[in-house]
Design goal:
Aminopeptidase; 20% strand; alpha+beta; 166 residues; Acyl_CoA_acyltransferase; single chain; five-stranded mixed β-sheet; 5 strands; globular
Length: 166
């Protein structure tokens, strides 16, 4: 299997959303919120996670790179950058199950890092959850350093929401 990397095209968006929702099952912050508080405003965590991909595409579509095998999308990485601060951000990366653990994520990350170098940026930033052992290993192997751990807190804003949470 030879993976090809190409630029994002708007018609890729729905496929990227589907890949992302499947890939983030069990490791999404939004899914954790839903477990605690239930569905919010009629939208489940999958809708919110797919919305993150849509936001990536609106913010900097030229920073999304598509991984293909035999002209089929198998994964992607989204990036955006702040030229003033010199920082490149990697908000999302996902692959279909059959293509995980084969070094394709590493290739896409290397591609994104080279993209940032071409933009003359100084740093690249990526985030992951503590339980993502694969991501933690991969990122450090590419030179990323853990800077700080973050804890996510959520507070219900109405008494009804507090009472409804399991």
């Amino acid at each position: 299997m030879i993976m090809k990397i190409r630029p994002y095209q708007p018609e890729d968006l729905q496929t990227l959303k589907e890949i992302t929702v499947e890939a983030f099952q069990g490791v999404s912050i939004d899914e954790g919120i839903e477990r605690e508080f239930g569905i919010i405003n009629g939208h489940d965590w999958k809708w919110r996670k797919a919305g993150h991909v849509e936001a990536d595409a609106k913010r900097e579509p030229e920073g999304i790179f598509i991984a293909e095998i035999d002209d089929q999308i198998v994964g992607y990485i989204s990036t955006w950058h702040d030229a003033e601060t010199g920082i490149g951000y990697i908000p999302n990366m996902a692959f279909i199950p059959e293509c995980r653990g084969q070094g394709m994520g590493r290739k896409l990350l290397e591609y994104a890092l080279e993209h940032f170098r071409q933009l003359n940026l100084s740093l690249a930033k990526i985030e992951t959850l503590e339980q993502n052992a694969i991501g933690n290993h991969l990122y450090t192997s590419l030179g990323f350093q853990e800077i700080v751990k973050q804890v996510h807190f959520v507070a219900p804003l109405s008494p009804a929401a507090r009472e409804e949470s399991p």
